[in-house]
């Protein structure tokens, strides 16, 4: 008599887990929900990362940008308005003329901008074309400035 080997013969039978959720709901929970969670977390986390880890060594002002925002990463007003500017830049990433250059003047490499540009407080927005500077600490006023070029 010939012996045949059965794969996994020594292992106990594994039963498939049966879920009490219908397949479309399982798909949503397993595939769609994690993506939504990542997007929501990214929506709140990305501006914070950008604010603290980018814009730390700006060599010169971008004369093609619409404006420049001088900020300090530890400034509470800057933390409030920076996400508005960040998402404005993301939405207009292909239109360089609508971009707002952001410069973290708290960084040693950028502190010369405080005296060079006469920055007295943050966040200061400076229109590149007109040279006019505005201190704007309200999100709605920042939106107004980004849309029309002048704060309320």
Please, could you describe this protein's structure?
The protein has 4 helices and 4 strands, in the order H-E-H-E-H-E-E-H. With 152 residues, it is of the alpha+beta class. The protein has a 4-stranded mixed β-sheet, covered by helices on one side. It starts with 22 loop residues before the first helix and ends with a helix.
Concise account of the structure shown:
Helices cover 41% and strands 11% of the residues.
Largest sheet: 4 strands, mixed
Structural class: alpha+beta
As laid out across the biggest beta sheet, the strand order is 2-1-3-4
Q: Determine the number of helices (DSSP H or I, runs of at least 4 residues).
A: 4
Q: Per DSSP, what share of the residues sits in E-state strands of 2 or more residues?
A: 5-15%
Q: Share of helix among residues? A: 40-55%
Distance between the termini: 94 Å
Mean pLDDT: 82
Give the CA-based shape: elongated
What is the CA-atom radius of gyration, in angstroms? 26 Å
The parts where pLDDT drops under 50 for at least 5 residues are none
The H/E string reads HEHEHEEH
List the topology elements.
Elements: H1 23-53, E1 67-71, H2 76-91, E2 100-104, H3 112-116, E3 124-127, E4 133-135, H4 139-148
Parallel strand pairs: 1-2
Antiparallel strand pairs: 1-3, 3-4
Characteristics:
152 residues; single chain; 4 strands; alpha+beta; 4-stranded mixed sheet
């Amino acid at each position: 008599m010939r012996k045949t080997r059965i794969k996994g013969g020594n292992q106990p039978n594994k039963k498939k887990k049966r879920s009490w959720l219908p397949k479309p709901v399982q798909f949503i929970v397993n595939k769609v929900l994690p993506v939504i969670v990542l997007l929501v977390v990214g929506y709140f986390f990305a501006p914070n990362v950008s604010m603290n880890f980018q814009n730390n060594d700006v060599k010169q002002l971008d004369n093609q940008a619409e404006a420049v925002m001088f900020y300090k990463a530890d400034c509470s007003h800057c933390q409030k308005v920076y996400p508005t500017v960040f998402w404005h830049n993301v939405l207009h990433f292909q239109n360089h003329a609508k971009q707002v250059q952001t410069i973290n003047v708290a960084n040693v490499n950028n502190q010369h901008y405080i005296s060079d540009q006469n920055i007295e407080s943050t966040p200061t927005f400076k229109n590149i074309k007109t040279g006019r500077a505005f201190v704007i600490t309200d999100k709605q006023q920042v939106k107004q400035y980004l849309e029309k070029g002048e704060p309320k």
